[in-house]
Design brief:
Number of strands: 30
CATH architecture of the largest domain: Beta Complex
Number of domains: 3
Structural class: mainly beta
CATH superfamily of the largest domain: TonB-dependent receptor, plug domain
CATH class of the largest domain: Mainly Beta
Number of helices: 3
Low-confidence stretches: 1-22
Mean pLDDT: 83
Shape: elongated
Radius of gyration: 34 Å
Distance between the termini: 75 Å
Length: 532
């Protein structure tokens, strides 16, 4: 069997965060056996693969057992050419090699009575017999043609058997207001019960993980993705650095033909209906536009691919809350949040702890009001003269309200909704607003591929992803009305840059080296907005 000396992956790591883990690119391979019509193997037959898009050519010879192996091939459509002296030349066209696929194709040669070529164009069903890993390849056609909300490619990963995404919009892994890593889009992906932040993301063989929270570094545009594969179980030792699945994303390269695209997606508030709790249709304006272009710089030698995408989104979020009324801010708790009288005594005087709990006795633990229902002034020790026990706190110069506490209480917006509460069942809010959450994102990729010779090929890619998201509070700047303790009046910045360089060199038909260097600069930070 063909000796496999190589598959050496050299990944440079340094204090400059040059890829802390070792990976190879998510390439594929062809292997198989060449024999004659009697079933006898043919040693020394020439097997040559040629990429139909770029002209990249690799050539090997079968070993003594008639076996051949061509590893480290990029994702592409190939033509496989087999020849041996005294036999007819055989050629199989339109053979698609997918990401991380080890494809086995056997050839049977006929004796050559006259010079002729047998050409096969139909693709057989590919069954991998040399790779025990389980996973699902999402092809270029699926990435480009299946509907996606927001052009988020992670949604397509759920086509993999056993893979799911969270549907809770408030989740840290989807679009929760407290999540700095999901501001650009959901990265939730779970296989077999794994945690959503335990997925390992690789882009052209380079680590693409946001390490603090398990997010994605470069959130690739679907125009940049050639295809990707979700590895679920039994994958090779070079993967599996995390407890969940591994996602291998391969970017597009140019070819001998020019190809390009332009797109724009538009959503507008005027075209939307309101949600259940909103008083009117929430603002939702989305402009997402961009394009891509790729082609040859020098045919069969040098190729380029460029894509860019811009996103502007303004989304009103229906917010409901239960807030203190104006009367409560002035110390009057004789009515609930909806203006209905409360039953019994609901607040106590903290200065009178230990006194009687009987409202008819004096002194007791309750606040005191005069015959007109006004709270009686308090002494320096917090005690009030005898009156009628009530639910009103004295305020002003002779009151008991703490100045700091009063200032904090005034940070809540005033109630603006009642909706017949009560007696409407399940009513739990007296405030409604529609704060607008914004997202501005710019991303682009530049990739160059060059075939130095039949034995040498290199590629280089630079990816850029910069996003700024503003998460408003429910009551505006300086307000305490907010969806959560970590999601109010803050600006989230997502900063991601990645450089990848790879070289594949064939020393001999049995020795191949692949070197990959990657550099990541990924961080997220939150800027809290000052109170007015």
């Amino acid at each position: 069997m063909l000796r496999r000396n190589a598959l050496l992956v050299a990944v440079l790591c340094s204090v400059f965060s040059l890829c802390p883990l070792l990976y190879s690119q998510a390439n594929g391979s062809f292997s198989g056996t060449v024999s004659d019509k009697t079933g006898s193997v043919i040693a020394g037959a020439t097997v040559r693969t040629t990429s139909q898009g770029t002209g990249l050519t690799r050539e090997v010879k079968t070993d003594g057992s008639g076996h051949y192996l061509i590893p480290l091939l990029p994702v592409a459509v190939f033509t496989i050419h087999v020849e041996f002296q005294g036999f007819q030349t055989t050629e199989q066209r339109d053979v698609r090699l997918q990401v991380d696929e080890q494809r086995e194709i056997n050839f049977s040669l006929n004796p050559a009575s006259v010079t002729s070529t047998a050409e096969v164009s139909a693709n057989e069903v590919a069954v991998e017999t040399t790779n025990a890993s389980l996973g699902q390849v999402i092809t270029e056609q699926e990435v480009a043609q299946l509907p996606l909300n927001g052009r988020d490619f992670v949604q397509l990963a759920t086509l993999t058997p056993g893979a799911t995404q969270e549907t809770n919009k408030g989740s840290f892994f989807t679009e929760g207001a407290d999540s700095e890593v999901a501001a650009r889009g959901s990265f939730s992906l779970s296989v077999g019960g794994s945690r959503p932040n335990s997925t390992d993301w690789l882009l052209d063989g380079v680590d693409n993980n946001e390490l603090t929270s398990g997010g994605i570094g470069i959130f690739s545009s679907i125009d940049d993705i050639q295809e990707f594969k979700v590895l679920t179980y039994n994958y090779e030792a070079q993967y599996g650095t995390r407890a969940g699945p591994t996602v291998l994303v391969t970017t597009k390269s140019g070819s001998n033909a020019f190809h390009g695209s332009l797109f724009e997606f538009l959503r507008n508030t005027s075209l939307d209906a309101k949600s259940f709790f909103a008083s009117k249709a929430e603002k939702f304006n989305l402009n997402q536009f961009g394009g891509s272009i790729g082609g040859p710089i020098q045919k069969n030698k040098t190729f380029f691919f460029l894509d860019a995408e811009q996103k502007y989104q303004r989304h009103g979020i229906a917010f409901v809350g239960l807030l203190p009324t104006t009367a409560m801010r002035n110390g009057d708790f004789s009515a609930d949040n909806f203006g209905s009288p409360v039953s019994g005594l609901v607040i106590t005087n903290p200065y009178m702890l230990g006194a009687s709990t009987d409202p008819g006795a004096y002194p007791n633990i309750y606040f005191q009001c005069d015959a007109s229902g006004n709270p009686l002034p308090a002494a320096a020790n917090g005690q009030q003269p005898q009156g009628t026990s009530c639910n009103k706190i004295p305020t002003g110069s002779t009151g008991l309200a703490n100045n700091i506490g009063q200032a904090l209480l005034n940070k809540y917006p005033a109630p603006n909704a009642n909706s017949g509460c009560p007696p409407q069942p399940g009513c739990s809010f007296n405030f409604v607003s529609q704060p607008v959450r914004s997202l501005d994102e710019t991303k682009f990729d530049v990739r160059l591929d060059h075939n130095i010779s039949i034995n040498d090929s290199v590629f280089g890619r630079f990816s850029y992803d910069q996003a700024s998201s503003y998460v408003p509070g429910g009551g505006g700047v300086g307000s305490f009305a907010e969806a959560s303790a970590f999601g109010s009046n803050q600006r989230i910045i997502n900063h991601a840059r990645q450089v990848a360089i790879g070289e594949t060199h064939t020393f001999s038909p049995t020795t191949i080296n692949q070197a990959t260097v990657g550099y990541n600069r990924i961080f997220d930070y939150i800027l809290s907005q000052k109170l007015k």
